[in-house]
TrEMBL record:
Substrate binds at residue 472. Transmembrane segments: none annotated. It comes from the Bacteria. Residues 107-130, 284-298 form the Glucose-methanol-choline oxidoreductase N-terminal domain. It comes from Sphingomonas pokkalii. GO terms for molecular function: flavin adenine dinucleotide binding; oxidoreductase activity, acting on CH-OH group of donors. This is Oxidoreductase. InterPro entries: FAD/NAD-bd_sf, GMC_OxRdtase, GMC_OxRdtase_N, GMC_OxRtase_C. PANTHER family: CHOLINE DEHYDROGENASE, MITOCHONDRIAL, GLUCOSE-METHANOL-CHOLINE GMC OXIDOREDUCTASE. FAD binds at residues 117-120, 249, 473-474. Belongs to the GMC oxidoreductase family. SUPFAM superfamilies: FAD-linked reductases, C-terminal domain, FAD/NAD(P)-binding domain.
């Protein structure tokens, strides 16, 4: 960065801080649009609405600022897990995982998950988007249309691919810079097994049966480029975008079946803020269904059970919870190799069965050991790398329930991972492929040997899978888009039976996207904003 650029950035920072201090000193009684949650999708919606200067937008975030080294330094992401920027959810003990209660981290603060995640940019598979369009009965979601949106929003820094990539958008995407030798070794090992490599995991590779590539990252000038940084940060000096932190949305306010605002808690005080046009829920796949249920929108019997009056019976709220589940396989380095970038620089997608036409397995290489709390007891090398090997198309489904009508009481999360026997079969194939890769010739000079799981019988490997399983942090699908009785929103992301209320976040996915989920969340934000702009002629 030159001196002039540095001064400009400092000047902007000061103006933005003064502007937001002024706008948030006292909130107005009403705004045109209220966006709840400043995460991956909410950041996109708020920015796109605020592009119209005549529109007053309020973006509400429960967590705090993203001005911290733990957020902005790409190497420090693991330090946020379990800390103040993590909601620290825990799933119920799961009999399919030997009774383990998994931690379910989700981002809390400006940027949401995109401020604590691993920064991998993965756009989903062609078949994901065509499936979304089919479920919604709305061609705006099909692959071709979504590809156009990706081209529009990306500022792509890698090998040109004009058919699929764009370079004028707000989201700076770059291939991991100067990757570790183990990332290159993974590409070579995969090639030796007949898995093709690509320039990027986001072009042609996700239109077919998969492959391997150096990961695309949201890192710019060596700093995390969260979706909040990409979309909202440049607008913080605008008079029509108010971004309020440390403020929790408890319920939606209604007149009849029209959403007319939200009830918030700020500085210990309850307050109602009005929405002239619409309220958008972007609080992520746990908190969006929670706020819906506390507002009387959900399964009738469930709401009655905790004593909440029913406003709209929608049995899909909190159902259909999906997540990628991962099983870490670990190799010990021959000599320590320091992680580079976010410590995850190569991605591989492949199939658990040859007859599949799209990948159902997802592998992100991690350049340090990542055991589960259970497999840690098997002995973890001080220096090593992990194949974070997971199911990209899990069959198991979980469910969220309220424990109480009190909005301050946390959810009951039945993540239910590995409950479907088909997932165990895919998991065994996944770990076997992982071992073939990690024990391949390409790694010989870099590793001393395989630390876990090692060669095990089928039964012992099943036990390993149950002990090793952790979340990939891709919680989704708890207020799905579609047309059946379990659907919560339509193709324009409007909540069925309610006026003036949309959902824009990972909850609306009918099925978890094949890869990491933040890029699809950016698309969901773009789709919501486009529908809002069309509906209100903005
Ligand atoms: C540790 C970790 C690593 C990950 N790695 C990757 C990766 O490398 N690549 C990738 O693509 N994806 C990754 N993900 C997943 C990705 O970040 C999420 O899928 C994505 O952020 C979800 O977007 P969202 O808009 O649905 O919700 P979020 O981004 O979670 O945003 C929701 C926001 O709403 C706020 N909120 C919640 N409740 C309330 C309330 N009641 N009132 C006000 N505000 C509220 C939250 O604090 C949060 O800021 C990772 C996630 C985690 C946690």
């Amino acid at each position: 960065m030159t001196h002039a650029n540095h001064d400009d950035a400092q000047d902007f920072q000061r103006r933005a801080a003064e502007n937001q201090a002024r706008l948030t000193a006292e909130l107005k009684p009403a705004y045109d649009f209220i966006v709840c949650g400043a995460g991956a999708s909410g950041s996109v919606v708020a920015r796109r609405l605020a592009e119209n200067e005549a529109v007053q937008v309020l973006l509400i975030e429960a967590g705090g600022s993203d001005e911290a080294e733990a957020v902005l330094d790409p190497a420090l992401w693991p330090t946020n897990l379990g800390g103040e920027r993590d909601w620290r959810f825990t799933a119920e003990p799961n009999p399919h995982l030997n009774g383990r209660a998994l931690p379910m981290s989700m981002g809390k603060g400006l940027g949401g998950g995109s401020s604590i995640n691993v920064m991998v940019w993965a756009r989903g598979h062609r078949s994901d988007w065509d499936h979304f369009a089919e479920e919604a009965g709305d061609e705006r979601w099909n692959y071709q249309n979504v590809l156009d949106i990706y081209r529009r929003i990306e500022n792509w820094q890698g090998a040109p691919d004009p058919l699929r990539r764009g370079s004028n958008g707000p989201v700076w995407v770059q291939p991991a810079a100067d990757p570790s030798p183990v990332a290159h070794a993974l590409l070579d090992a995969a090639n030796a097994l007949g898995i093709p490599s690509y320039d990027s995991p986001n072009g042609r590779m996700m239109e077919g049966e998969g492959g391997v590539a150096i990961s695309d990252m949201l890192v710019r000038d060596g700093r995390r480029h969260s979706l909040f940084r990409a979309y909202v940060h440049p607008y913080l000096d605008r008079p029509n975008l108010t971004v309020v932190t440390g403020t929790t949305v408890e319920r939606i306010a209604f007149e009849g079946n029209r959403a007319v605002g939200v009830d918030i808690v700020r500085g210990g005080q309850r307050q109602r803020i009005g929405a002239v046009h619409e309220v958008v829920l972007s609080m992520g796949a746990m908190q969006t269904p929670k706020v819906l249920m506390h507002s009387g929108i959900g399964d009738e019997a469930e709401l009655r059970r905790v004593g909440i009056p029913v406003r709209q019976h929608l049995p899909g709220v909190g159902a259909n919870l999906q997540d990628h589940v991962s099983f870490g396989c670990i190799w010990e380095y021959a000599a320590p190799i320091a992680p580079r970038n976010s410590g995850s620089e190569a991605t591989l997608y492949w199939k658990s069965r040859p007859e599949l036409t799209a990948p159902d397995l997802l592998f992100c290489q991690v350049e340090f050991p990542v055991p589960s709390e259970r497999t840690a007891a098997r002995g973890v090398p001080e220096h090593g790398w992990t194949m974070f090997a997971g199911l990209a198309r899990p069959h198991s489904r979980g469910r969220l329930r309220l424990r109480s009508a009190d909005a301050a009481v946390p959810l009951q999360i039945d993540a239910n991972m590995m409950s479907d026997p088909a997932d165990m079969e895919a998991a065994l194939a996944c770990v076997e492929l992982c071992r073939d890769l990690g024990n391949a010739q390409a790694f010989r000079t870099l590793v001393r040997g395989e630390a876990m799981p090692g060669k095990l019988s089928r039964e012992a490997l099943k036990e390993y899978v149950r002990d090793a399983a952790v979340t990939y942090w891709h919680q989704t699908c708890t207020a799905k888009m579609g047309r059946d009785s379990m659907s919560v929103v339509d193709g324009a992301l409007r909540v069925y039976g309610i006026e003036g209320l949309r959902i824009a976040d990972s909850s609306i996915m009918p099925r978890v996207a094949t890869g990491n989920t933040q890029a699809p969340c950016a698309i969901i934000g773009e789709q919501a904003a486009a529908s809002l702009r069309a509906a209100h002629q903005l």
